[in-house]
Amino acid sequence: MKDLNNKVAVITGAGSGIGRALALALAQQGCRLAISDVNDTGLAETVAALKDADVKSYRLDVADRDAIYAHAEAVVKDFGQVNLVINNAGVALSASVREMTDEDFKWVMDIDFWGVAHGSRAFLPHLIASGDGHLVNISSVFGLIGVPKQSAYNAAKFAVRGFTEALRQEMNLEQQPVAVSCVHPGGIRTNIANSARMGKSENGAAQRKGFDKLAMTTPEKAAATIVRGIRRDESRILVGPDAWGIDAINRLLGAAYQPLVERFSRKNLYV
Fold it and tell me: Model's pTM, two decimal places?
């Protein structure tokens, strides 16, 4: 998809962060936009920032499977086609396996994994029908390595990676006109840490402060990297220098990366 002009792009979680930055970046490329979020206020702010773009907003809770399928049908009805889908909506949880509740575990999986899986399946027939489709699923560097107190988030993001990589291969083998990319952002300066749920013994303020120090990439830079990856049909899109570093360490060390993460976590997470 080298030419994005007049393509219909669907973006979930567009009320802030990477989702909003993607909407702005794709509008500059001439895309027609179907953007959604569960946050009405944030979504309205994104629409206002888009000014003269061809955009329609939808309130969507990606944890609701039926709502996602209804959303896909509504977008096709409103725009006539779908060319690009970016499953971006996500949440975070910081809690150990022993402390996290079943409710919080389900919350993360319903949004971060099932939201992506259902979003992919709901829009896939329409992407195929377009004759020039591209599906982009947002994982994380936590879909590349395991991190203490991120087991639920790791589970969701590893699952997104496996699901997306398998789907890309299926589209190639079936000779379907749909490219598939999995995105692995490192630390991005968004509100995801501020809105994260915390285990009962977690120092939320300290963890959020630590995340802010590690967030190396702006949402705008992240969006530019993702758009470039879409144009190049990259199967794996790494966002930020930390993402490239983590990917390299994982490839070089294999499972031996874990003592390095433990050392970092002992200093920064177990305080």
Answer: 0.92
